[in-house]
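QA checklist item 7 of 12: single-chain prediction sanity check.
[x] sequence parsed
[x] length recorded as 306
[x] structure emitted
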Amino acid sequence: MLSPSDIATIPITINSYGPDVARAKKYVYLSGAAYCFNIPAWKCPYCKKSQSFGYDFESLIVNKEANTLAFIAINKELKEIVVSYRGTLNVANVVHDIHPSVVSIEAGSTSLERGKSKGPEMWVHTGMINATNSLYPEVVEKLDKLLRKHNDFELVVIGHSLGASEASLTLFLLREELGLPKDFPKPKSYAYFGYGTPRVGNQAYADYWNAQAMQITRVVNKADFAAYTPQALGGYVHNGNELWIMPTGGERVCSKEVYEDPYCANSLAGLSNVHDHLHYWDVHFLSCAGADPVATAKQFVIDMPS
């Protein structure tokens, strides 16, 4: 198996385009809004900021058993439907994060053409795909109805932390038409924006996304620890579309000819920390949690059997 340093030196062909700095700075507010406790009211600071860009709340998707959450927003002027996934905020989410295994996601899928060859099998983090599957059926149901009304809209899937992983895997399932009704309407185009995305899968999974002719922006803030995880099982790697928020200020579009540019976020791997994971530009992902400590505490209460 190739090490991350070996992988970083292999030239690859990237058909996906991005990163897009302007759009990343806009969607970060929709990503931050996913952590608020009353999203349908659309009155939290990040909700209001998103509304100023023309985004309106459409629907909430929650799995109480898995304690996962996503919401859908729509911008009729820009012709965009955005699915925003919340990251880790409770014990159940932590269990997903630390799940100690990987699983193949190609079983039963359509043929995955990468160049002229299907390529090696794709493996992804088990906890991340479990979290994704906890919401996916309802996401499909809600998108089915929306896209029938707006079939000329772009579908943008975003998230932070665990939510960024769920966004990536959801987009994979949608593009491979897994678990969809036969007449599921396709959007005009797709896009992905992830903030503090952990390494979701192996090299074959990264290859898949590098080969997609679509907008992909993976944002890493300074020495965000999540960009370097999970490591324990080995073989995980990011795709090449990285936008790095530098410690000195400003952003750098990293080299797309390597999987993980050693001169971007990887240059600070040894300094990885939680603070950089929680702050992207002027968005503090746990600010809503801090404003409502009682509701936050309830997220970490485990119901004991009677």
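[x] summary fact logged: The two ends are 48 Å apart (CA to CA).
[ ] second reviewer sign-off
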